[in-house]
Amino acid sequence: MTKLWQKDYKLNEEIENFTVGNDFLLDKELVKYDVLGSIAHATMLNKINIIDNNELQKLKKTLIEILELDKKNKFEIKQEDEDVHTAIENYLTKKLGNLGKKIHTARSRNDQVLTALRLYEKEELKEIKTLLGQYKDSLLTITKKYGKIKIPGYTHMQKAMPTDVKTWLGSFISSIEDNLRLLDAAYSIIDKSPLGSAAGFGIPSIKINKKMTASLMGFSEAMSNPMYAQLSRGKLEATILHLLSQIMLDLNKLSTDLMLFNMQEFGFISLPKDFCTGSSIMPQKKNPDVLELVRAKYHVVLGEEFKVKSMISNLISGYNRDLQLTKEPVISSLEIVKSCIKMMVLTVSKIKIDEKKCEEALTKELYATEEAYKLVKKGIPFREAYKKVSRKF
After folding, report:
1. What do you get for the CA distance between the two ends of the chain, in Å?
2. Which of 94, 211, 241, 343 is 20 to 30 A from 225 in CA distance terms?
3. What are 162's strand-pairing partners?
4. Are 58 and 24 a contacting pair, CB within 8 Å?
5. Interatomic CA distance for residues 39 and 124, integer angstroms
6. CB-count exposure of residue 182 (10 Å: 0-12, 13-18, 19+)
7. Domains of the chain, with CATH numbers?
8. Strands annotated E in the chain
9. What residues contact residue 293 under an 8 Å CB cut-off, 6+ apart?
10. Which residues are known to be catalytic?
11. Cα distance between residue 57 and residue 365, in whole Å
12. pLDDT at residue 13, as a whole number
């Protein structure tokens, strides 16, 4: 199996297994995006007369063939391929001979990897944006139904002042809006094509058209500095992971609230029975495992964010193999966040709020601040009013 960097010797098998890692498995997510990047690259090579029209059509046809195989889960990436990029080039070479070998002209695996990752990340962020919209809608729907119900507000895990469901759930809606702004910012930062940066030092002798490939792939622009393209690997993934951890933080906190208010001691809300698991020993148990797992997965995503931020530090400029290990944290975190948002949309849409239980919890100490301000309206200084009311509790 030919590798993109193949020399006139065979790599030690143990070294090969270690350096490949699980990229050949992770890269199943990237087949579509490497094909799209390769089609754009081939089109540009045709434009600058590296390949002719007939060769371009053959390459496009075979690349689309790979896409169709991937849709049927029939495009195989073997460990000896190392990654999706090698697997695709090997497929092209097997089918097209020397023409398949031309596809790598004016391209390095470095910018090829980055291009596929950025295309993948862009599409994933679009999906997350859609899911956040669904999550926001589920909160708006439940707020419309129960928003006027008064509930206790808490500070220091103690009753503080009265609030209502609209204010409580509305705080999460406001946070979603901020997360969407953060998502748009992250998207705009990664929406730059790294193709043409090669190994980080550009392409010698051949005048390529980076703006053309960027446009063909749907990027807003091409990265102008080739070394920044390599510097950005891991850095921009850390930006995405920060966004994901912010989203997960909100899901973590709402999950905690829902579990607390679902406790028999509170009873403000109830979850459907079929959303809860049971106990192997206690017949009465109905456990909110889905919320516990959402709560816990925030810490997983946060850990992946710091893993990447730590991994990319202390490296000299240019590509270093350490960066290979920044791929999995992003791919796994994107999957976690998508699944958790879906679970919260489902859960929020099915909760019921018990108005009677909420009303019973509105005990008199919640109105202490209000009572103090009534005295202030009568001309009593706030500090004296505060002390006077505090003696009652």
Report:
1. 79
2. 241
3. 152
4. no
5. 21
6. middle
7. 13-102 (1.10.275.10), 111-196+223-360 (1.20.200.10), 363-393 (no CATH)
8. 150-155, 158-164, 192-193, 221-222, 269-270, 352-353
9. none
10. 156, 279
11. 77
12. 73
Helix, strand, coil percent values for the chain (each to nearest 5): 65, 5, 25
Amino acid at 348: V
Cα 229 vs. chain centroid, distance in angstroms?
Answer: 21
Identify the residue whose tokens are 């009677």. Answer: 356
Residues 28-57 have pLDDT tens digits of: 999 999 999 999 999 999 999 999 999 999
Task: Measure Cα distances from 57 to 70, 102, 215, 280, 380 in Å.
Answer: 20, 13, 19, 62, 86
Cα→Cα distances 392→88, 104, 153, 381, Å? 77, 80, 20, 18
Do the beta carbons of residue 193 and residue 214 sit within 8 Å?
yes
- Residue 357: pLDDT above 70? yes
Helix (H) or strand (E) holding 252: helix 235-262
Give the total residue count for the chain.
393
Q: Which amino acid is at 369?
A: T
